[in-house]
Amino acid sequence: MIENIRTQIKQTSEQKYQAEFSRLKEQDQHRKPAGWQLSAYAVRSFILGDDKLNIQKKFYGDDALVDRALVTLMGNQGLMLVGEPGTAKSMLSELFSAAISGNSQLTIQGTAGTTEDHIKYSWNYALLLSEGPTDKSLIPSPLFHAMKNGQLARFEEITRCPPEIQDVLVSLLSEKQMMIPEMGQDFSLQAMQGFNIIATANLRDRGVHEMSAALKRRFNFETVKPIANRQFEIELVGLQLKQQLAQLYSEIHIRPEVIELLVTVFNELRTGQSLQGASLKTPDAVMSTAEAVNIAHAASLQAIYLSDGKLQAGHIAQQLIGVVFKDNPDDAKRMRYYLDTVVKERARKDSDWKAFFDASREF
Ligand SMILES: Nc1ncnc2c1ncn2[C@@H]1O[C@H](COP(=O)(O)OP(=O)(O)O)[C@@H](O)[C@H]1O
Ligand SMILES: [Mg+2]
To answer: Is the CB of residue 85 below 6 angstroms from any atom belonging to ligand 1?
Structure first.
């Protein structure tokens, strides 16, 4: 009988890595920047892994980016992570803020409806009427909290906000203070050391180019690229699938060849080139590592709940083609071409590729 344990769907990084943080804190001999919980060395180990302290590697592919980001966060500029969807921008920003400030939850999610109040503060109107503009009637934004307590604030998908709202950040970042005119003409909140902003922006959203020059100057930009190393990507997908399946992982049998096939398909479609060098058309669909993990996860659920608990390349094909390509006729054509050339050829010699090809014929 398979038991049913319910847990929180997603833990924050500070909950999830509590044990790692205490080991790192205990061993941390290096000097900490003002307002930081850990030294930059320790934050680096937390993100890139440390075998001696049994710290798991979390970000793959670009160690130097992590060092540059740390230097930015110590300084006066904000950190802007830009890139294709699914390249771990949000993950990095969560890991940095958990490690540096012990809090990854001071987050503003940028949308077309984001207002200045979401960025600064708003009022509890009942209290405002009875008490006037006091500390009690003011409702602080996550950014307000971060300034007050000297922590990192996260601004997700910043380019989805209207430009004039983005520009509210300009003065916050340059003056490191927030004016609160309701409390008095010169009244302001002064940011404590340790405060900074990590913003993320997807290159697929229009808008990165429309960001004002003034705002761009307040940030150091880092482009996060998809993982280029196939071996890394295979390792990562396997690892993350295991994490996502959690206790279900023991219910499923996964052969490494199936994960390798999945990563190969993603890699070839993303780069527009087969491993043998044939050129392909890249689909509009996002072919990120994160998406590969999602497909593997969905295929695993299918294998567990609707099949015999063995993950097959056919399950992958059904999820990938059914979910990702069905709704976009152009993508479906590009996929068909890939299947009828690259995949068909491999299917002659390899049973996993054959299973993948056979399952794809239904679409
Ligand atoms: N280079 C990478 N290293 C580690 N994990 C990665 C990498 N690229 C993608 N991922 C995985 O993709 C997931 C989704 O990334 P996310 O941070 O939501 O992407 P983004 O914000 O860039 O759209 C991450 O949580 C992580 O599991
Ligand atoms: Mg994101």
So the answer is: yes
Cα distance between residue 164 and residue 161, in whole Å: 8
For the segment 15-43, what is each residue's pLDDT rounded down to a tens digit?
999 999 999 999 999 999 999 999 999 99
Q: How far apart are CA 163 and CA 284, in angstroms?
A: 26
For Cα atoms 151, 153, 159, give the angle at the middle one, nearest 5 degrees. Answer: 160
- Phi and psi (nearest 5°) for 58? -115, -30
- Whole-number Å distance, alpha carbon 94 to ligand 2 midpoint, is 10
Q: What is the pLDDT of residues 252-302, one digit of tens each?
A: 999 999 999 999 999 999 999 999 999 999 998 888 899 999 999 999 999
- Say what the pTM is: 0.88
Which residue has the CA at smallest separation from atom 5 of ligand 1? 59
The ranges of the chain with pLDDT < 70 are: 1-5, 206-209
Q: Is 60 in the pocket of ligand 1 (CB under 6 A)?
A: yes
Atom of ligand 1 nearest to the CA of 240: 27
Query: What was the pLDDT predicted at 2?
Result: 56
320-340, pLDDT tens digit by residue? 987 777 778 899 899 999 999
Which ligand places an atom closest to the C-alpha of 107? 2
Determine whether the shortest distance from the Cβ of 93 to ligand 1 is under 6 A.
no
Nearest to 296 by CA among 322, 320, 274: 320
Return the structure tokens found at 163.
Answer: 């430009």
Task: Kindly report the protein residue whose alpha carbon is nearest to atom 10 of ligand 1.
Answer: 88
Q: Which helix (H) or strand (E) holds 121?
A: strand 121-123
Q: Is 244 in the pocket of ligand 1 (CB under 6 A)?
A: no
Return the residue matching tokens 């206790």.
247
Pocket test for ligand 1, best of 289, 294, 295, 297 (most atoms within 8 A of CB): 289
Which atom of ligand 1 is nearest to 200's Cα?
21
Where are any strands of DSSP class E within 217-342? 219-223
- CB contact set of 38 (below 8 Å; sequence gap of 6+): 21, 24, 25, 28, 32, 46, 99, 100
